[in-house]
Amino acid sequence: MKLSTLTKLLFILFFTPNVLMFNAHAKPVSQSTLTQTQDLVKANDKYVTLLGTQINIGDEAPNFKVVDKNFTPVHLSDFKEQTLLISVVPSLDTGVCSLQTKRFNEEAAKLPKNITILTISNDLPFAQKHFCKVENVDLVKVLSDSVWRNFGESYGLIIKDMGLLTRAIFIIDSQGIVKYKELVANISQHPNYENALTAVKDIAPVIVIENKVITSETPSETTK
To answer: Quick one: what percent of the chain has pLDDT higher than 70?
Structure first.
């Protein structure tokens, strides 16, 4: 569908200034200064080089700075006392990435409130917002690393010469420690959903809610 002249004009008036503002502050990725890691991930049948610092299970999770659909900065430190499952995808506008994001959005409804699922990609926030609206993705927080590339650098996920993030899953506990990591061996493949979902449920503290007795006829209940 072609955009009308009025729609194009509104887009230019309302969105272009924001893009220019953030591009002016965006930090370009200097590939020569970043740590390079080979032999971890393939694209088709060839290994790709990952840029940034690899983190391991047991490490303190590095803080990071990304943006939401409104270009508002979001940090890891914003999720204190939450257990995080971070689903990393190269681009939402591809088959596997779309399915991965929708799968975790469905699973988010089944998880306790102290577990938060993030999806992070290098897609522009405009594209992420459109995807979420079309696909009814509303239970995971979809965030963009396109402005500063800080998340990709801090977690060793930038694919050299492509500018995309490699497919991965991380689980960070409520104390900020990395408890689970999967770098998907081939970026065209799905992550292991069942392992990740089982792990995040095991890692998150159990929430016990005691319902108060409202009347003498109402028995108390304990929900785990």
So the answer is: 78
Q: Is 97 a catalytic residue?
A: yes
Entry pTM: 0.81
The confidence score (pLDDT) of residue 32 equals 65
- Nearest one of 183, 179, 159 to 169, comparing CA atoms: 183
Helix pair angle (193-203, 95-108), 10° resolution: 30
Average pLDDT over residues 101-124: 98
37 DSSP β-pair partners: 50
Exposure string for 111-137, b = 16+ CB within 10 A, e = fewer: beeebbbbbbbbbbbebbbebbeeeeb
* Residue-wise pLDDT tens digits, 19-36: 333 443 445 555 668 999
**Cβ-count burial 28-51 (b if 16+ within 10 Å, e if not):** ebeeeebeebeeebbeeeeebbbb
Chain mean pLDDT for the chain = 86
DSSP lists the bridge partners of residue 158 as: 51, 165
Sheet containing 50-51: give its strands across.
36-37, 50-51, 158-159
In the set 84, 97, 184, 187, the catalytic residue is: 97
Pull the structure tokens for residue 21. 């503002």
- Give the tokens for residue 140: 């995971």
pLDDT value of residue 21: 39
